[in-house]
Give the backbone structure.
Amino acid sequence: MAEPAEKPASWYHRAVPERRLPFTVKDDAGASHSGELLIVRTWHPGLELNPSAAFTIVLVEQPLQEASPPPTAGAVVVCAPATPVRLPATVAETAIADETGDASPTPPLRLPRSALAAYAEGALLAALPLSTSAQEVFGAGTRQPRLAPLIDHVLAAARLADACWRSIDQLLSSPRPPARVAQPQRLRDRLSAALAELPAATSDAAGEAAIARLGEIANGAAPETVVASPATLADDVALVRCLKEQPRPAAELASMLAYLEAAKPGPQQRRLLVDRAATREQLSFVTLLSEPHRLDGMRATFEIFRNDYLAAYTEHHRQYWQAWARLRDVLDEAAPIAQTLARLNTLSALGQPLGRTALAAYRRLTREPRSCSPQDLEAALRERPGCQGCQVTLEIGVPSEETEEVLRRLQAALARQQARLAKQAVRRILARGGERIEQFLQIVQASDLTGLAQVLDDELLAFLSELLAQPVSPAPAALDLLQELIRAHPTVSEEQVEAVTQTLRQLLIEQLASQQAADPSREAAIRLAATQSPPSS
């Protein structure tokens, strides 16, 4: 009996035809969008799509080839696995209810776990930028793909892209009506031609930025990834046309817009903020292109804002430098504190320097300009919305709070250094006579930071540096105590700490009692450190 012929490896895929499943979703506004889910073996951009579908999700059973071209249509997403999968000939579907109890527009798509894992590690391919990943759609233990959020994003991106292309078409075609269906490649060609006819240079940086954005779109960039909104794109295209067709009015409007962009009110200037936003809405290249006679009205609106801004800026400039003068006095008064802290930080015997960040901030604040009194500030402000001498803006205030914090930190650091100095130096200074040393000792012990700043000069600093550098040697009595303690406790473990402490206490009591018995007229005391020769003054 003849054996049956061996089936080719691709028999399963030939036996299973391309499948199209209807898929309907509701957006946040409750509107329904009907699309389709397409299952194919491999992806190719020439795949026949349903023109009436609002969106198409393509599940391919084979991984994408290198440099696979994306779909040409905007509302199409290709989902490809990392490894080949076999999707069943029939897809298991079960009706579910949403949170309101209504039936879902489309039953969920259920795929084998192995297929979900492969798609989660695979890739998503689309003509429009995607903010989601294959892992988010197919992974994280889901029993079915999370297609609804993906479709919502694709539809929103498609609507934004369509609105951008329609804006370009409308502004390039005006006053004629735009095409019924915007054709991206044709519009890119028209953009390139319009940009090529522009004058050699534009009048301002904002105009250059607009032309650069349109150049990106003409060279193939998706418009929704280049501009913030279709309205911005429309104004960019209108600018290009106005520069060619109405060069002088376009240059004047560009100058007004540049001034408005730089004239930023501070957070306290709420009325000026509202006026600036309202003025910006009136200054439009779209309006200038379609209604050139409205330039006079735009100019008048701009002048009202500029006059209000000029008055607010002039007053702010005056108050700013008055406040800085008062702040400068406070900083000057704190100079001895900062200088003393810096001096004490040079004494390595006191430990790591303190308040270095506060000292750096203090020096930066003291380097700020002391004043600004420009000539004819109001006239200069009509050309540029800021003082060119000091660059102060309405958004900048005097750093009063920062100054208070810096001075507080300087005081705290100096107090800590003073405490260190008292601890390290007092017992060494006691043996040193002299009126100046006694005065210094009184200041240190009293924690008088102001007095310390007045008395600590270079000569005294050198004396302290030499004094603190002297080694402290144990006295003979201290060595005797240590030897007896060592004989009683040759080794010390954690459990013996209490016993060692008791032994040391007993030894000290015995030594003091012995001194008292030998000479009752003197106060008993045990000298632990030997007296060092004081440094020369």
